[in-house]
Amino acid sequence: xxxxxxxxxxxxxxxxxxxxxxxxxxxxxxxxxxxxxxxxxxxxxxxxxxxxxxxxxxxxxxxxxxxxxxxxxxxxxxxxxxxxxxxxxxxxxxxxxxxxxxxxxxxxxxxxxxxxxxxxxxxxxxxxxxxxxxxxxxxxxxxxxxxxxxxxxxxxxxxxxxxxxxxxxxxxxxxxxxxxxxxxxxxxx
Length: 189
Fold this sequence. Notes:
- The chain is α/β, with parallel strands linked by helices and 189 residues long.
- It is 53% helix and 11% strand.
- It is built from 10 helices and 6 strands; from the N terminus they run ααβαβββαβαβααααα.
- The chain has helices at 2-10, 22-32, 49-53, 75-83, 96-107, 118-126, 131-141, 146-153, 157-171, 176-186, and strands at 36-40, 57-58, 61-62, 65-70, 88-91, 112-113.
- The strands form 2 sheets. Strands 1-4-5-6 form a 4-stranded parallel sheet. A two-stranded antiparallel ribbon has the order 2-3.
- Helix 4 packs across helix 6, helix 7 (131-141) packs across helix 10 (176-186) and helix 8 packs across helix 9 (157-171).
């Protein structure tokens, strides 16, 4: 998808485009210093969304505006993008013209919110989990063990267990598996 999106946007005469994986994104943001970073907030690397604009920050704030590609059916990624400071939000179902319009608007420093994402934002506002709990839950849903989650998020094992306990309580689940199931059904992860 990244290659296709890069090729599509590269056809616009006023846009200079480069693409990278999540692993290389922070480094590329430091070297290229883009005006806008278009990110798919539903892909596995999106847990690290905050690190993308962190390295691109200048003395007066972000030099890179985030434009999130998302779907209304998954409010968790919308919430993570909002918490990371995204300036624009475009539905993955939107056409190419809509995406280009959003990029230009966000590059001009203006907020852009695709109206088809409104319901997802309402659901995200009602979500009981914190951004950190969502990160822990998403990794658990991907099959990571407590130790792997702790290592990936630079937390202690006890802290991860405490987060899983809070997630189970807040979702009204019986156990970790039930919390994952309920959260997936609600579209949080």
